Amino acid sequence: MLHVRSPQRVLAYDNDGEKAKVFAAALGKETGTPVVTAPDLAEAVRASDLIVTCTTAQRYFITRDMVRPGTFIAAVGADNENKQEIDPRLLAEAKVVTDLTEQACVIGDLHHAIAAGVMSAQAVHAELGEVIAGRKAGRARADEVIVFDSTGIGLQNVAAAVAVYRRALGEKAGRGFSLAEDVVAA
User: pTM higher than 0.70, yes or no?
Assistant: First the structure.
């Protein structure tokens, strides 16, 4: 996100305050962006325009009443059917974009909204590829809450890894690892 937005500050929250401090210090040093720990999750969510969740939570912790109009949430932790980060009611009221809707219906936060009976697969606004290709609109109004329910697509991850690997080879970057070219091209 730091490549496309310039936040004034970044808030980091973890149930374990010490882990949040270590993360904030490391991210701040790596990015040069001020990162501060947030002692209260609800207050941090209310103060944020962009939210990224990446947890192993098995029960949602971001609720509708925490989120202000216009917020964008990238929910990337619910990558199996037992994980959940976002309140099903929040998904039902938001503009939902998935990486792959069919998969999100089975393992993502969308899966939990469908199971709760508050949403259907047909209520998903778009898949990310449709927005990127311009086939479906992204944000239409400044007050829309948008949730990107990312469950991870293995093939995309492999393609990205191959691109990074090839670039590293071209720049003679990295160390201590080699991979046969025929494996990378597969």
Answer: yes
CA distance 63 to 89: 8
Burial class (CB in 10 A: 0-12, 13-18, 19+), 184: middle
Structural domain of residue 145, as residue ranges?
Answer: 40-152
CB atoms within 10 A of CB 169: 14
Give the CATH number for residue 145.
Answer: 3.40.50.720
Taking the C-alpha atoms of residue 151 and residue 99, their distance in angstroms, rounded to an integer, is 7
Report residue 183's pLDDT band, with 50, 70 and 90 as the boundaries.
very low
